[in-house]
Amino acid sequence: MGTVPYELRQIIKVTNFNYHDKNFGWIIYPILGVSFTIFANDNDFETLIQIPSFKWDIVFSLFVVSIIGFYLAWLVRHLDKSKDLSWEKNFSKRAIIQFIYGVAAPLTLALGLELVYLNIINVDLNQSSILNLELPLAFLYLFILNLLYYLNYVSVAYRKKLEEKDASKLFEEKVKVSVGAKESLIPIKNIAFLKSEDKVLWLYTFEDKQLHISGTLNDWKLRLPNEYFYRLNRQIIVNRDAIEGLESTETRRLKVFLKNTDDDIYLPKSKVTDFRKWWKS
């Protein structure tokens, strides 16, 4: 079967999914809060701004919208962590759960807070537009917000699939290796690691072959896909599938155990954080 890279065993790594709400939420939610106060009212705008409680209506609306915004941001990420609620694997179940907790629950919360607010400002429920305007508009806003999260998920997931497809194609390609006067092609996926030793560069394969090749580690770092290969130190570039284990040391360095070698390989402490990000990506 050969070596299968970690990325190719996953379609989407949802725990690190990149939503855009942190970038646009600060703009969208205030607009929703203000527009809700204006549209969910049966008075025209000129009359509305003359009402003494109008400014407090705006403040209250922004408060509720902010709470719901933070809640929805937490909710989608929490649901994404469950494999049983994946949009790809169980769309119907996820859609139902998303509707219950993403629309119905915050809608109930918003209406409850609205009732408390009306009581505080001494407005009779029968005189408010909570049922004929606010309820339908709040439902519409919540539905649109959840839909935007789903569309965000789909668009990013599609882009990730394309990136992984391109990366997998590159991983399947072959590189030309010059061994003395002879040239041969070796699949990139067969390269376990490259090691520079006494100014001589060696290529080690998963089949436990050792080849003396031309070029430098810097040259090969540019030729190999970064998704799968990492330069551990001045001497070694490794394929992630050649890494058997990691061990932290007392000096905060990282000891790396590789297949087909018993050499002691250490990652400088200055590169540990960057390596772990690459390793988890």
Give a description of the structure.
GO terms for molecular function: DNA binding; phosphorelay response regulator activity. It comes from Flavivirga eckloniae. The longest helix is centred in the middle third of the chain and has 43 residues, at 130-172. This protein is elongated. The strands form three sheets. It has a five-stranded antiparallel beta sheet, with helices on one face. The chain has a three-stranded antiparallel beta sheet with strand order 8-9-10, with no helix packed on it. Strands 1-2 form a two-stranded antiparallel sheet. Mean pLDDT is 83; it is low at 1-15. The relative contact order is 0.10. It is an alpha+beta fold. The protein is 49% helix and 18% strand. The chain folds into two domains: 6-170; 174-280, LytTr DNA-binding domain (OB fold (Dihydrolipoamide Acetyltransferase, E2P)). Strand 8 (243-248) and strand 9 (254-258) form a beta hairpin.
List the helices and strands and how they pair.
Blueprint lengths: L20 H19 L5 H4 L5 H27 L10 H30 L9 H43 L1 E6 L2 E6 L3 E7 L2 E6 L4 E4 L3 H7 L5 E3 L4 E4 L3 E6 L5 E5 L6 E3 L4 H9 L1
Antiparallel strand pairs: 1-2, 3-4, 3-7, 4-5, 6-7, 8-9, 9-10
InterPro entries: LytR-like, LytTR_DNA-bd_dom
GO molecular function, one term: phosphorelay response regulator activity
Keywords: Membrane, Transmembrane, Transmembrane helix
